[in-house]
Amino acid sequence: MSKRLSIPVIPFVLALSASWASAATIDSAEAALAAGDADSALEQVLTVLETDPDNPEALDLTANLGMLTGMPGLARDSLLHRAGLLVAAGDKAAVRSVHEQLSGLNATQPEWVDQQLQAIAQVTEEQAPAYQDWSAITQDAQMALEGGDPESAIAAQETALMMALENFGEEHWITIVSYRDLGFLYRQMGNAEAADQNYQEALARATGLLGESHPQTLEILGMLAELYQAAGMGEQALSIQMDVINGLTQGLGAANEMTLSARYSLISWFESAGDYQTALAEIESVCSDIVDQYGAWHPQAVDCIYYRASTEQTLGQTRKAADSYREVISLLAGTQPAVNDYVF
User: How many CA atoms lie within 13 A of 105 on its CB side?
Assistant: First the structure.
C-alpha cells in the first residue's frame, strides 16, 4: 500500500522542498537588502528565478532591486513577466498595481539629467529672497494669462526675466526658464517673431549649459518646432521635431513619457496635414515600443492600439480596424472588471 502511495507523493514532496528552499533564499535576500547589501540580495533572488521563474515574491523583489542597483531593464523585465502571470491568473487589481509601477519606471530619467540641471539651478541663501520675488512674479504672469489678460501676463514675465538676469545672471536655469516662458506667452499672443527670439535665447543658454541632448534643452527645441509648425513652416518644424525625438530616444528611451509626448505630437502634425498613411506608420512604431516597455495590457498600449484602429478606420482599412478593435477588447478584458463590444 505504501509503495503505491509513494509514487504521487514523491513529486509533491520535492515540489514542497523546492518551495521551502525558494522561500528561505528570498528571506535571506530580503535580510541582505535590509542590511544594505543589495548586490548580495540580487544574486540570491536571481538564483531563485533560475529554478522558479514564476515565483511572485522573487519577481517583485527583483524589480525593486533592479531599480536600486541601477538596472531598470531588469526591473522592467520582472514587472512585465509579473503582469503576464497576473493576467493569466485573473488578478486584475494586482495587474493594475504592476502597471502603475511600470508607468513610474518609464517616467524616470537617468541620474545625469537631474545632476546637470541642479548644477545650473543652485540658489544661494543670499539669492533666496530674489527667488521668492521671481516666483511670485511668474505666478502673476500665469494667473493673468489664465484670466484672459495676455498683455499683463507678458509685462509680468518681462519683469521676471529682468529679475532673473539681475539676480542670477546669464548662466542660470532661472534665466533660461524666464526666456522660455516669455517666448510661450508671446506665442499665445500670436507674436511669432518675439516668441522665436525668446525661445532662441533660452535654447542657446540651455545648449551651452546643459548640452544639446539634455531633455530640458530638447523640450525648448520642441517648443520651437511647435511654433514653426503653427506658423506654416512645416519642413523646418518637422526637421527640428525629428531631432527632438532622436535626442529623447537616445537619452531616455523610445517609450519614456517625454519621448512619447514628442512622438505623438509628430503624429498629430501628419494628421493635420491629411497624411494619415504616414501617421499610421508612426502610430504602429509607437505601439510596438510601448508594448515592449509597458506590456500589452498596460493602458498606454491599449490607448495606442485604439488610436491605431481609429486611424485604420479613417483610411478605410475596415478589416484591420476591426481586428485592432477586437484586440483592444481582448486586452481590456485582462485588466477591467467587465468589457464587451458595447464599450465602443
Answer: 28
